[in-house]
Design goal:
The structure holds 3 protein chains of 3 kinds. Helices cover 33% and strands 31% of the residues of chain A. Chain A is α+β, with helices and mostly antiparallel strands. In chain A, strands 3-2-1-4-5 form a 5-stranded antiparallel β-sheet, with no helix packed on it. Chain B is built from 15 helices and 13 strands. In chain B, helix 4 (104-109) links the parallel strand 3 and strand 4 (113-116). The chains are: A alpha+beta, B alpha/beta, C alpha+beta.
């Protein structure tokens, strides 16, 4: 149900078989594109492969976005610590009371 | 490995676990269920329990399509395989699952023609390569896999393939989640939502979990950073006393799902009125059967299927483990009569079954484990 | 006359494929049926090769059988596997193969060209491994009874001075060395069978590891505690056997395990663990901590050893178990293989 691996499309067959040759770290397999007919992938696209079918296109933009979010984790916390270091917290306290 | 290695980055993993620690209330005990067997497998494979704080409990859900398949269905499939000139084709996951008279591999050892396929289209290739035999594809899986079977059946029909049929055991994920939430002994704070299922069904089908049941659910990927980030997102929701559906696995899961896949499924399959789930009993509208328009390729109609029903031995507590009520080590048969090599229940034979995953990957302590000591081990 | 035979503990009613896969089931068969009846009740841990004393000289002896489908695959064929496999069994027991005898069980209908190719490959491998093929036997069985051909080899060798290997000498603190990337052979065979429709530039790693073993012994002989060639069942099975035999724990560092990209890709695609995949040209060595770096350098400088790594160490805990750790602190237990590795989709 869950084992699906990212692979890169290195060849798309021209005929009606809706298939492509996909590369996973140098291992190649013919993959069926029948489930992506409404959003046809192109050469060089990355797709998620499950039981020999491409399930979805992988969005590099979203992946980078995620990486960025993860890299920023704790950054806001670190920024807060820096601010606290300036001794501004009694200013904060005064505002609350 | 692109789109894999970045999500296994050790520095980012450590950073994310620090954030998890920051977000956890030390006085609170969190119970989060990962529904999908693939997530269970990933949690153990990447040793994620070792990096999470002790008060986060990951409960393994019933999203393992091999585990929830009643033994009788395997025997039904094997009874077809026993007929002359039939090739039984299935994914590797099925090969060691025990039926009443042995697993498919054991049947193969006794002379049955049993083949492992990686894709249902490989089963069609087998049929074309063996025109004098009948290839029966034993289909399993949730909505992740059902569209592929659907497309394969569409191909078989379009080509008028005569010597091919599918024994359909596809099940749907939402009824399983509902059964969990309906279970009186269940207490959960939130869900790590299915990842690959969701590429097909999208995120909308989970909305009732948040709106009606008040539980946060985060649709999650399968790499360590995906799981850890999803836990961060769940903890944030819990901290803010929120309950909503979030999509952590954005790079792959479209909110609306895959229309072409859903269309194919709808054309080929319809819901069974009810289906027996191992450990969970009969659940209505929870499984797929092949439509009349594809009757010729439905193994259950092509062949006389005995409709065998086998109850699990009373001592096997698969049901409670499937529902997350018991931990694998708390089942009396765990690691005694029931091991991956001699499984009593399918939770032990499928590598993503909670029992097998726990047995194979857990940090085994040399002393005997009593229920009291379980907190530190599980 | 004392009762030679021990008690048979093997309870299964029929032999299954799993019993030949090199993992737990194989072990049950060997330890539960063969050992008590053939080796007497006081046999110790069963190794790849036996060392026996004849007229005051210690010689090493080993036997193996080769059943592989397809017969020929990228990087080799059954003939090479047969020779290299025997040479390697002797090498990791601390012996240099001197002579091999071969038996062939041939299936009627086997084309002569195929047999000739295999025998030629054997001759070449024997020449490369500097081992004499001293004799042999041939039988032919009916069509359908032998998967084309089965080869059995028995090899004898002279002990390599300066090294003694034994599981009981392995101590916490010792390091685990691996001669090179794992999984090449098993994945090559899987792909060559053609059932999974996968293609890759990958070859079996079949070769004699004797030169590497000799280089290791020259540089670090006194520190070498144990060696094994991780064939069927992979590194996980060999190390689990060691862990069981020595009683200590083995911790592996995941990032240190050498793995080719293609093997990794195939394993990820099929849901397989590289640690369970067969190798035919690698070996594991446990070396004392003080000599581990020297040993590693010696391997890396020897031809064919450039990818050698220290992949782990022996610890007291977890006793008799093998653990893999990641850089971020995650841990998973790695067990012996149960049956053949099966691709999965879940």
């Amino acid at each position: 149900m869950c084992l699906a691996i990212p692979g890169k499309i290195i060849e798309i067959t021209a005929d009606a078989t809706h298939s492509a040759l996909v590369d996973v770290m140098g291992v190649r397999r013919r993959v069926d594109l029948g489930l992506l007919q409404e959003d046809k992938p192109r050469m060089g696209d990355w797709v998620l492969i499950h039981v020999g079918f491409a399930m979805s296109k992988i969005s590099e933009a979203d992946a980078l976005d995620q990486m960025h979010t993860l890299q920023m984790l704790g950054e806001s916390e670190a920024a807060m610590e820096e601010v606290r270091g300036y001794g501004l917290e009694d200013v904060e306290q005064k505002r609350i009371t | 490995m692109k789109f894999v290695d970045e999500f296994r980055n050790p520095e980012l993993i450590m950073k994310t676990t620090e954030e998890i620690r920051r977000l956890t209330d030390p006085l609170r005990h969190y119970r989060v269920m990962e529904v999908c067997g693939g997530h269970t497998h990933a949690i153990y494979r990447f040793g994620l329990k070792d990096v999470l704080p002790e008060n986060i409990d990951l409960i393994h859900g019933p999203g393992c399509p091999v585990c929830v398949l009643p033994m009788g269905r395997i025997d039904d499939g094997l009874s077809i395989a026993a007929q002359p000139n039939v090739i039984f084709a299935a994914f590797g996951d099925m090969m060691r699952v025990p039926g009443a008279h042995g697993s498919p591999l054991e049947h193969k050892a006794r002379g049955a023609d049993v083949r492992i396929v990686y894709s249902p289209t490989d089963a069609i290739k087998l049929a074309k390569a063996n025109p004098d035999k009948h290839v029966m594809f034993f289909a399993i899986g949730f909505e992740t896999t059902a569209p592929s079977t659907a497309l394969t059946l569409q191909r078989a029909k379009a080509e008028g393939l005569q010597n091919f049929s599918v024994f359909c055991n596809h099940v749907t994920i939402i009824p399983a989640i509902r059964a969990i939430l309906d279970s009186p002994d269940m207490r959960l704070d939130g869900f790590i939502g299915p990842g690959h299922c969701s590429t097909v069904i999208g995120c909308r089908p989970y909305e009732w979990i948040a709106s009606d049941e008040g539980k946060p659910i985060v649709v999650c990927g399968f790499e360590p950073l995906d799981l850890l980030q999803s836990i961060v997102m769940l903890l944030r929701q819990l901290k803010n006393v929120e309950a909503k559906v979030e999509n952590q696995y954005k790079r792959v899961v479209p909110w609306e799902g895959n229309r072409a896949a859903l269309k194919a499924m709808n054309e080929v399959f319809q819901l069974r009125p009810y289906f027996e789930w191992r450990g969970l009993g009969f659940i209505s509208q929870s499984a797929l059967r092949i439509r009349d328009s594809y009757a010729q390729w439905d193994a259950e109609r092509r062949f006389n299927v005995p409709g065998i029903r086998i109850t699990d031995p009373k001592a096997a507590q698969c049901g409670e483990v499937l529902k997350g009520v018991l931990k694998p080590a708390q089942c009396k048969l765990f690691a005694q009569e029931c091991t991956p090599e001699s499984p009593v229940g399918a939770l032990m034979v499928s590598s993503e079954g909670s029992c097998a995953a726990f047995y194979n990957y857990q940090h085994r302590k040399p002393v005997t484990i009593s229920n009291a000591n379980l907190a530190s081990v599980v | 006359m004392e009762n030679f035979a021990g008690k048979v503990r093997f309870r299964e009613s029929q032999i299954e494929m799993a019993h030949g896969a090199g993992g737990k089931a194989s072990r049950r068969l060997v330890e539960g049926l063969f050992a008590p009846l053939l080796f007497g009740s006081n046999s110790g841990p069963l190794g790849d090769a036996a060392h026996i004393q004849i007229n005051g000289t210690r010689i090493a002896m080993t036997t193996d059988s080769f059943v592989v489908k397809p017969l020929s695959f990228p990087g080799g064929s059954i003939g090479e596997l047969a020779i290299n496999g025997t040479v390697n069994d002797l090498a990791v027991s601390g012996a240099k193969a001197e002579a091999i005898v071969v038996t062939f069980v041939l299936e009627a209908g086997l084309p002569t060209v195929i047999l000739e190719a295999e025998v030629r490959a054997m001759g070449k491998a024997a020449h490369q491994a500097e081992v004499v093929i001293a004799g042999g036997d041939t039988k032919v069985v009916e069509h359908g009874k032998a998967d084309n051909m089965y080869i059995t080899t028995t090899g004898i060798g002279r002990l390599i001075p300066g090294v003694t290997v034994s599981a009981s000498s392995v101590q916490p603190g010792d390091k685990v060395l691996l001669s090179g990337p794992i999984g090449d052979h098993g994945i090559t065979i899987l792909l060559a069978r053609g059932e999974l429709d996968l293609e890759a530039e990958l070859r079996s790693d079949t070769r004699s590891v004797l030169p590497l073993v000799q280089a290791l012994v020259r540089a670090a002989g006194p520190g070498v505690r144990w060696m094994r060639d991780p064939t069927r069942g992979g590194v996980a099975t060999s190390l689990n056997e060691l862990a069981r035999d020595c009683g200590h724990g083995i911790v592996l560092f995941e990032e240190k395990i050498p793995l080719r990209d293609t093997v990794r890709g195939a394993c990820e695609l099929l849901g397989l663990d590289p640690l369970h995949i067969a190798n035919e040209g690698q070996f594991l060595a446990i070396v004392s901590a003080d000599l581990a770096e020297t040993a590693l350098q010696a391997l890396r400088e020897a031809p064919g050893g450039s990818e050698a790594e220290i992949i782990g160490e022996i610890r007291e805990q977890p006793a008799s178990a093998v653990l893999v750790t990641t850089l971020y602190g995650g841990m998973r237990l790695v067990d012996m293989l149960v049956g053949d590795p099966l691709p999965r989709i879940c």
